[in-house]
Amino acid sequence: MHDYLTGGFTANTSLAHYCRDNGLLLHIHRAMHAVIDRQKNHGMNFRVLAKALRMSGGDHIHAGTVVSKLEGERDITLGFVDLLRDDFVEQDRSRGIYFTQDWVSLPGVLPVASGGIHVWHMPALTEIFGDNFVLQFGGGTLGHPWDNALGAVANRVALEACVKDCNEGHDLAREGNEIIREASKWSPELAAACDVWKEIVFNFAAVDVLDK
User: Fold this and answer.
1) Pairing with 11, which of 31, 76, 119, 160 sits 20 to 30 Å away (CA)?
2) PANTHER family, alphabetically (predicted)?
3) In this structure, how many other beta carbons lie within 10 angstroms of the beta carbon of residue 127?
């Protein structure tokens, strides 16, 4: 793992080359980003920082979660995800993408969702990010009442249930909680996790919004 903003782009690129040459994955942390990208007077949007990271090198980076405790307005976050993950990004002002961008063959970076997420968030995360992203469950795994391994089982069951129902055409935004409840009937690990986390939500306004 490397903090690419505090470590610097030159160091990050050197480390990316080293990891590629030695078969290692490089997780990118974005510590200090808020000092830069949430300062409206002299700041630089995270879209710019995300594009710079893609050019510098890395395998995955936290790009905002939309749900749970780490803020992130949905359309803006999906704009970050598009710039990190897609080869060709169409103009979409609603996501802060002001011109079409072609990354040609430059490798993408997987977006990471993390920060207070647990099994009840799985439908929303799958609906928002699709099935080509990274989930980091810390407390959402270690907080399972039985043990860490069974916490991981609960998360995996919830994820697979959501992906399956999404592929079958279900509306995860509308049916998500019912999908989790149904899956918990045949997974005691998931049922225990559901009982611990219940349906906790974090309600607050996002700081990072599009300029009007």
Assistant:
1) 76
2) RIBULOSE BISPHOSPHATE CARBOXYLASE, RIBULOSE BISPHOSPHATE CARBOXYLASE LARGE CHAIN
3) 18
CA-to-CA distance for 192 and 145, rounded, in angstroms? Answer: 7
Q: What is the pLDDT of residues 112-157, one digit of tens each?
A: 998 889 999 999 999 999 888 999 999 999 999 999 999 999 999 9
- Domain 1-115 indexed as CATH 3.40.50.150: no
Strand order in the sheet with 134-136: 2-3, 27-29, 60-62, 110-114, 134-136
Letter string b/e over residues 15-54, b meaning 16 or more CB atoms within 10 A of that residue's CB? bbeebeeeeeebbbbbeebeebbeeeeeeebbbebbbebb
- Nearest CA to 188 out of 143, 124, 137, 145 is that of 145
- The rounded distance, in Å, linking the Cα atoms of 122 and 162 is 7
Left if phi > 0, otherwise alpha if psi is -120 to 50, otherwise beta: which for 206? beta
DSSP class of residue 94?
G
The H-or-E segment that residue 65 falls in is: none
d(CA 168, CA 206): 32
Instruction: Tell me where in the chain the CATH 3.20.20.110 domain(s) lie.
Output: 1-115
